[in-house]
């Protein structure tokens, strides 16, 4: 199967077209982030929810630079040779979180396969900096797969985030086309490791639909995640960020998304599915849902 530009993708359905960015919210949040010299995955990956989340005073901080060592076919984050790490980044992140009055902070990172620790040190340092705040927020980490190196996962577990998120991103069959440097088994192993070593940490994952997967394949992924000890799964419609990324194969309807939520509930999962759902969309709400169930 080829995802090249051989044929035009499907037309945008009404439930996608009606979404509009609120530029005032974008500009206000950008100013706040620039004061701390920080980046967000919201901007770097051109997330369609960024105006809503920025308007709510929330953002997902992107650490370890803005250049990824991988080149996934669905992602618009810059790839190539990364810059050196910024040693001040953890303290800048904590200061920005305090200035914004955040009660729940989400931290993610570009893949740094060039580093011996895969970039784990920055996650640990950011968690430590946030814990030193007078009123520490709850923290969610959204990590890379670290190429299956569980010692790196252990280091983050030991730093004590409230939520450990790692996305499977897509169904196994499509990894070679859209997530070439990843492995489906690595994604499941990350979740299973957290469940085994720190069951008190909320385990979370997410995937995109619209890349050519079938309903049966998505349901199989939900089953695998439940078996690995996952608790929260986000499912959102893949939207092509720029012409350089793979095309959308089809748009899942809101009704189909609701059916996926029901299927996940039957497996004991907290599934949040919708056209604009992303892995860190309304992350604090998802965390509180699971916390109330515990």
Description:
Helix 7 (150-159) crosses helix 9 (184-197) and helix 9 runs parallel beside helix 10 (215-228). The chain is α/β, with parallel strands linked by helices and 294 residues long. Mean pLDDT is 83; it is low at 1-7 and 20-27. The chain is built from twelve helices and eight strands. The longest helix is centred in the middle third of the chain and has 14 residues, at 184-197. The protein has a single domain (18-293), classed as TIM Barrel (Alpha-Beta Barrel), CATH 3.20.20. Helix content is 40%, strand content 13%. 45% of the residues are buried. It has an eight-stranded mixed beta sheet with strand order 1-2-3-4-5-6-7-8, sandwiched between helices. It is globular. Helix 6 links the parallel strand 3 (104-109) and strand 4.
Ordered list of secondary-structure elements with their pairings:
Layout: H1 14-17, H2 23-35, E1 39-40, H3 41-44, H4 50-55, E2 60-63, H5 89-100, E3 104-109, H6 120-131, E4 138-142, H7 150-159, E5 163-165, H8 175-178, H9 184-197, E6 202-209, H10 215-228, E7 232-237, H11 254-266, E8 270-274, H12 283-293
Parallel strand pairs: 2-3, 3-4, 4-5, 5-6, 6-7, 7-8
Antiparallel strand pairs: 1-2
């Amino acid at each position: 199967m080829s995802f090249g530009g051989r044929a035009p993708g499907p037309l945008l359905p009404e439930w996608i077209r009606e979404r509009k960015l609120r530029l005032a919210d974008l500009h206000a949040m950008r100013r706040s982030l620039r004061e701390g010299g920080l980046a967000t995955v919201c901007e770097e990956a051109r997330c369609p929810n960024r105006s809503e989340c920025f308007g709510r005073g929330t953002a997902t901080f992107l650490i370890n630079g803005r250049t990824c060592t991988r080149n996934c076919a669905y992602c618009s984050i810059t790839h190539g040779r990364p810059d050196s790490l910024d040693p001040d980044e953890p303290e800048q992140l904590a200061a920005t979180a305090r200035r914004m009055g955040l009660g729940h902070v989400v931290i993610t990172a570009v893949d740094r396969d060039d580093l011996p620790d895969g970039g784990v040190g920055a996650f640990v340092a950011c968690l430590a900096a946030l814990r030193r705040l007078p009123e520490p927020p709850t923290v969610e980490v959204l990590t890379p797969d670290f190429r299956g190196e569980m010692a790196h996962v252990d280091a983050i577990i030991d730093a004590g985030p409230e939520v450990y998120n790692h996305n499977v991103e897509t169904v196994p069959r499509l990894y070679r086309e859209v997530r070439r440097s990843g492995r489906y088994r690595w994604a499941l192993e990350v979740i299973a490791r957290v469940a085994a070593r720190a069951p008190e940490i909320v385990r979370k994952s997410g995937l995109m639909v619209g890349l050519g997967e079938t309903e049966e394949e998505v349901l199989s992924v939900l089953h695998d995640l439940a078996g690995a000890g996952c608790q929260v799964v986000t499912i959102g419609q893949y939207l092509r960020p720029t012409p350089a990324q793979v095309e959308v194969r089809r748009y899942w309807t809101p009704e189909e998304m609701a059916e996926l939520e029901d299927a996940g509930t039957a497996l004991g999962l907290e599934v949040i599915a919708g056209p604009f759902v992303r892995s860190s969309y309304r992350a604090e709400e998802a965390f509180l849902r699971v916390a109330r169930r515990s």
